[in-house]
Design a protein that fits this description.
The chain is α+β, with helices and mostly antiparallel strands. The protein has a single domain, classed as Aminopeptidase, CATH 3.40.630.30. Helices cover 33% and strands 23% of the residues. It has a five-stranded mixed sheet with strand order 1-2-3-4-5, with helices on both faces. A hairpin with a 2-residue loop joins strand 2 and strand 3. It is globular and about 60 Å long. The structure holds coenzyme A (COA). The site of coenzyme A has 19 residues, from helix 1, strand 4, helix 3 and helix 4. Coenzyme A binds next to helix 1, strand 4, helix 3 and helix 4.
């Protein structure tokens, strides 16, 4: 029987984390493969870290990861955990690694005193949706929207009338 182990990632694993994070972006249609080992080190390690990285090992080999960070749930007026990413390499899927990663993040959510664990998912990502439903996840009515690049600067400077509408 295969042994799954989830543990905090090490800085030396920044290259494999960057590769898997870019593969997840590819999987959901985000272009550009923006992760580099340096970005993982800056984002996930040290006193200014924006997220905490976990890795999952299957029989001693790293086959998955999760990134999470403490946020806030205004419905409950309490701290909430935000799951940024979860990914298992294709060959290792269907063997309980995703479940083990989610269980580890949920345990950390409780340890950190958070009232909920939340995440976003692309509507077209039907495999992930099925996985999340198996975990008992609810919701799905809310959408996550955002601005970046030129639109973010326009919003900040009041120049957004000059931008073409996205829809
Ligand atoms: C989603 C993902 C993390 C699941 O990881 P995994 O290791 O394959 O999941 P597990 O083997 O632990 O499966 C857990 C449960 O979900 C179910 N499940 C997992 N993937 C599924 C799929 N594509 N369709 C239907 N059910 C699925 C399993 O049958 C299992 O059910 P059970 O607990 O009742 O036996 C993995 O498929 C993945 O990395 N996908 C690509 C990246 C991605 O979409 N990430 C989410 C971004 S929002």
């Amino acid at each position: 029987m295969s042994a799954v182990r989830v543990r905090p990632a090490r800085p030396a694993e920044a290259p494999i984390l960057a590769e898997m994070a870019n593969d997840l972006n590819d999987h959901v249609g985000v272009r550009g493969r923006p992760f580099t080992p340096e970005r993982v080190l800056t984002g996930g390690f040290g006193p200014q870290a924006a997220f905490t990285p976990l890795v999952a090992e299957l029989d001693g080999a790293v086959v998955g990861y999760a990134f999470y960070a403490v946020g806030y749930n205004t419905d409950h007026a309490a701290r909430a955990m935000w799951l940024h990413d979860i990914f298992v390499t294709p060959a290792a899927r269907g063997r309980g690694v995703g479940n083990a990663l989610m269980a580890a993040v949920a345990a950390e959510t409780l340890r950190a005193g958070c009232v909920s664990l939340e995440w976003g998912v692309h509507k077209a990502n039907t495999g992930a949706l099925a996985f999340y439903r198996r975990l008992g996840a609810g919701g799905g009515e809310a959408m996550i929207l955002g601005v970046d690049g030129e639109r973010l600067r326009a919003l900040a400077t009041g120049a957004r009338e000059n931008l073409p509408s996205e829809a």
